[in-house]
Amino acid sequence: MNSRTSSTGLGIRIEGLRKRYGEGDMAVEALREVNMIVAPGEVVGLVGPSGSGKSTLLKCLGAIITPTAGKMWLGDQPIFDNGWKTNDLRALRRDSIGFIFQAPYLIPFLDVTDNVALLPMLAGLSNDKARSRALDLLTELDVQHRAKAQPSKLSGGEQQRVSIARALANQPPVILADEPTAPLDSERALGVMRILNRMAVQYKTAIIVVTHDEKIIPTFKRIYHIRDGKTYEEAGEGREP
Ligand code: ADP
């Protein structure tokens, strides 16, 4: 399954999404009304205070937990339509969603190339083709000179670029980035945003960046604020990172 090939142009679409944890007196309405559209090639920010529902929304989008109500599409695939539509959630996560976290979480005993090539191999690409795709991405991200190194030999910024290459490796229509710049200084944080913006356009990927990093907030053209489980859209400054 690779929904990019069949995509009709929408990256992410969410309508009226709700998520309740628990029942009765113990129930927590973590998401009350989430509406969101992210086009292919677009990078949007998702900003909100602690407890506002950011992680719950990312887990719903990442097909890790089931929403209580509402609708979600990735590409043209309805992944939740008041009931799971996609049978193979593992394949959905592998092929349609790239994840970038605050820490790179590279596999320490694989070299940099194999860290990036692993997901395409698991998706069925031959080892040679997967490694060649990994090298292309590492070149795009300017870490090709570290291709044969073990992750522990790389600087923090280099490891984060490898983790971005890994997120792009299966050419997913969607990338979910959770505080990807939090540990980085200003220059490196803006560098990561430059890369994400360039990659979004080049690979027609819809990217959501959860952040409260003041350094990068001015780079977004659109921001979704989330408060008490409800989203509000706002135009951002859209400054060049
Ligand atoms: P954020 O990521 O913005 O900090 P969360 O999505 O983690 O917010 O949490 C939103 C609300 O849902 C909070 O009130 C939190 O306590 C609650 N919550 C999160 N996960 C669970 C869970 N597994 N069970 C019950 N309540 C939860």
Provide a descriptive summary of the structure in words.
There is one protein chain. The protein has 241 residues and is of the alpha/beta class. The chain has a domain at 12-102 and 174-235: P-loop containing nucleotide triphosphate hydrolases (Rossmann fold), CATH 3.40.50. It is 32% helix and 26% strand. A 6-stranded mixed beta sheet has the order 6-7-8-3-9-10. Strands 2-1-4-5 form a 4-stranded antiparallel beta sheet, covered by helices on one side. Strand 4 and strand 5 (77-81) form a beta hairpin. Helix 4 packs across helix 5 (127-140), helix 5 packs across helix 6 (156-168) and helix 6 packs parallel to helix 7 (186-203). The longest helix has 18 residues, at 186-203. It is globular and about 55 Å long. Residues 1-8 have low confidence and may be disordered. The structure holds adenosine-5'-diphosphate. Adenosine-5'-diphosphate (ADP) is lined by residues 21-22, 28, 30, 48, 50-56. Adenosine-5'-diphosphate binds at residues 21-22, 28, 30, 48, 50-56.
The set of bound ligands, ions and cofactors reads: adenosine-5'-diphosphate
CATH superfamily of the domain at 12-102 and 174-235: P-loop containing nucleotide triphosphate hydrolases
Helix share bin: 25-40%
Number of helices: 7
Unreliable spans = 1-8
Radius of gyration: 18 Å
* CATH topology description of the domain at 12-102 and 174-235: Rossmann fold
Terminal-residue CA separation: 34 Å
Report the principal-axis shape: globular
CATH architecture of the domain at 12-102 and 174-235: 3-Layer(aba) Sandwich
Identify the CATH class of the domain at 12-102 and 174-235.
Alpha Beta
Mean pLDDT: 91
Order of helices and strands: HEEEHEEHEHHHEHEEE
- Strand order of the main beta sheet, please? 6-7-8-3-9-10
